[in-house]
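User: Here's a structure from my thesis project, written as structure tokens. My advisor, Dr. K., wants to see whether a designed sequence matches the one we expressed. Can you design one independently, without my sequence as a hint?
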């Protein structure tokens, strides 16, 4: 309502207008004239009290630590953004301000909601992997092992160089399903929850394999390379490589 020259007439007033008044987003001269009228109206004043109570409840919530998998996705998005040809990451503060303004709430109230809904918005050219946020459906595993492009050929000391490419993929290749991946990880004594951050077929020193990137704590990735022909719940030898890195 920025730029309004006249105070809206009422009562009644819309809930949106009362929420804007409560959040302090109306022009000061409009708010100064509108507030006493709203507070004098029983129905509007009740809405104001309800908004006050909501704010108090939100502000009384304990601090919410960032989940490891969310931190890992942030790191992945930042790592992707650092590579040439990737669009810049949108400012979290700007995203919060826009969201709070649309919801009619002041700054600081929706910190938890921002963490849940809009931590990082990265846009990759032509990609539909960006803007993954909690609440979105997890990408469906790709079961086509006959990719149009040849798998990356890597040496063991080059696994870190493949992180950017593998993070963009959810291609289980010859492993075919998340359950098969889980079984292979179990065989190597590797615990992981949920969908890997990225997974793709590779060629490791001349051997067909599948590389999975797992969250390994704040700012770290665990790179696991599996032999799809031999890995399984009771086959530790099916893990060809297992290393943890911290992207720069």
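Assistant: Designed independently from the structure alone:
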């Amino acid at each position: 309502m920025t730029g309004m020259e006249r105070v809206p007439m009422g009562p009644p007033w819309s809930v949106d207008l009362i929420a804007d008044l409560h959040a302090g987003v109306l022009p000061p001269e409009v708010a100064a004239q509108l507030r006493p009228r709203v507070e004098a109206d029983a129905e509007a004043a009740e809405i104001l009290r309800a908004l006050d109570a909501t704010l108090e409840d939100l502000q009384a919530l304990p601090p919410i630590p960032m989940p490891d998998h969310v931190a890992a996705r942030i790191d992945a998005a930042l790592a992707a953004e650092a590579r040439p040809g990737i669009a810049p990451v949108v400012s979290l503060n700007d995203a919060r301000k826009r969201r709070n303004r649309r919801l009619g709430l002041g700054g600081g109230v929706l910190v938890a909601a921002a963490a849940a809904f809009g931590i990082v918005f990265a846009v990759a050219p032509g990609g539909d992997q960006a803007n993954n946020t909690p609440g979105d459906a997890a990408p469906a595993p790709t079961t086509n092992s006959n990719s149009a492009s040849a798998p990356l050929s890597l040496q063991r000391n080059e696994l870190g160089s493949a992180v950017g490419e593998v993070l963009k993929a959810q291609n289980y290749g010859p492993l075919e399903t998340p359950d098969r991946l889980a079984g292979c990880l179990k065989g190597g004594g590797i615990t992981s929850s949920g969908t890997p951050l990225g997974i793709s077929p590779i060629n490791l020193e001349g051997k067909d394999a599948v590389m999975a990137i797992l969250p390994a704590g704040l700012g770290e990735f665990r790179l696991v390379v599996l032999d799809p022909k031999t890995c399984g719940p009771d086959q530790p030898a099916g893990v060809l490589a297992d290393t943890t890195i911290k992207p720069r």
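When you compare it with your expressed construct, this may help: Confidence is low (pLDDT under 50) at residues 102-147.
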